Amino acid sequence: MSPISVTPPSTNKGRGGNERTSSMVKPSHTKSIMTAAFIIVLLWLSAERTDATVTQLVTGAPEMGKLLVEMFPPDWSYVTTIWAPMMETVQMAVLGTTIGAMLAVPIALLASGNVTRSKWLYIPARLLLNLIRTIPDLLFAAIFVAIFGLGAVAGVAALILFSFGLISKLLYESIEAIDPGPLEAMTAVGANKLQWIRFGVIPQVTAQFISYLLYTFEVNVRAAGVLGLVGAGGIGLLLTRVLDQLRYDRACMIILLTLVIVLVIDYISYRIQEKLL
Amino acid sequence: MIEFRRVSKLYSNGTVGLQEVDFTIHSGEFVVIVGLSGAGKSTLLRSINRLHEITAGEIIVDGKSMTLARGEELRHMRRGIGMIFQSFNLVKRSSVIRNVLSGRVGYHSTIRTLLGLFPKEDVQLALNALARVNIQEKAYIRADQLSGGQQQRVSIARALAQEAKIILADEPVASLDPLTTRQVMDDLRRINLELGITMVVNLHDIDLARQYATRIIGLRAGEIVFDGPVGEATEERFTHIYGRSLREEAASIGGEAL
Prior knowledge:
Chain A has 277 residues and is mostly helical. Chain A has helices spanning 10-22, 30-50, 54-71, 79-111, 119-134, 137-148, 152-176, 180-188, 193-227, 236-244, 248-276.
C-alpha cells in the first residue's frame, strides 16, 4: 500500500462491522410456523366454500375410470379428419403470437420506468397491461366471435390480445432489470432516444424476448385448441362435436395429436433457446 | 478546451457535490482528479458531458456552453467526448465490434442506425480503434467472453471510434488487477500522446496519478484543494491536505451516511 493512498483508514470500517455483529440475532421459527398455519387454513376454507370434499373425489373416481376405458383404443383413422383443423390451430397460434409480440414491444418499453422516465407515460401503460391480462382468452374469443362471426379470425384476434398481454408484462419486467451501465454509455456517446433503446436496451433483452415468444407460442397452441368451444375456429370445434357424440375414442385421438404437436414445439423451442444462451 | 466557471452542484437532499469549482483544462493535457470517495470526483467528471446536471455556474467545452446546450446540439457535443467507466458499461451479449460501433451512432441518421447499417468506413474505423488497444483479433467475439482488462480496452476503443477530442475516465482501473491496471493506463497515455486526445481521469490512487498525469487536481468535499503539475504534487503536500484532516472528514462522512 502506498504511504499516502487516499483511502479511508480501516479503523472506521472495523467499528461499523462490530456493531453489525452485535445486532445479529438468530431468527425465531414463529414466522414460518404462522405462514404454514395460514396456508392450511386458507386451503381448508377454500375447500369448504367450493364443496370440494374427499368423498366426492373418491366417488367420482370410477366414472373417471369408465371414461378412460372408453377412450381406448383411440380412433386412429380419425387423424385424417383432424389433421387440417389441427394445422389451422397451429397457424392461428403462429399469427396470434407474432402479431401480439410485435405490439407488445413498444408498450413494454413505454411501461418500463428506466426507459420512460415520466410517470405520466409509464403508469397508464402499466394499467393497460394489467387490464388486458385480467380478461381470460376464452372471453376475448367469445367477444371476437360476436364481432367477426364464427371462425378462425375471431380466434386469432383473441390470441393476439392474449399474447400481447403476456409478452408485454414479461418483457417490461425484464427491461426494468437490465444493466443500467450500457444505457449510461449510450447517453454519453450522444445517442438519441431511439438509438439509445436500439443499442442500450434491445440487445440486453433480445434473448429473453425470444424465450417469452416461444413460451407464449406453446401456451397459444393449447389455448387455440379450446377456442373452438366458443366457435373461434381450430381443433376445439371438432373436440366439442365428438364430446357431444360421446365419441371418447375420437376425443382421445385429438388429445394425442395435440400432445405430439406440443411436444414437437417444445423440443424445437428448447433447441432454439439452447442456442441463444 | 474544458472550462469550469464557478460550478456548483447541490443534490436535492442537501449534499454538496461541487462547490464553486473553477479551472481550465487545455487541449492535450492528461489531468488526473484525485480525492476520497464522496469528494465529488465522479460528479465533476459526469457534469462535463452532462450525465449529471449542475445547479450553478457554467461549463464550456471547446468554446461552446455545455450547460446551455439542448437536444441535438447537446448530443453533438457529447459525441465529441468519449467516456470510460469503472464497470466498462459494455453490452455483454453483443460482439466487441458492435459495442465499438455503438460509439458511431451520433454520426448517422436514426433510421440507418436502427437498422444497424454502419458504412464500411465505420467498420474499418472500429477495427483500427481495436488495433490501437491491441485486441483487434477479438472483434467478433461476444464481449462477456473477455477478461476485465480486455473489456476496458473495448470501451476505450468505443471512445476512439467516437473520434472524440476528449476522453473522460471514471475510475477506469478500480476493478482491475495491478498488471492490467498498468496496461490500461499505458493505453490511455499512448492515446493521449499519439492522438493528442485530452484526458480527464478520476483515480483514488495518488501513486498511479503521479505516474501518468501531467497535472493533478485534488478534490475534497466538492472543492478544489490542489491544482498543479505533477512536480508540485509532493508527498508532503498531499499528507498536509489529506493527512490528519482526512481522517476526521472520513469519520464525519460516515456519520452522515448512517
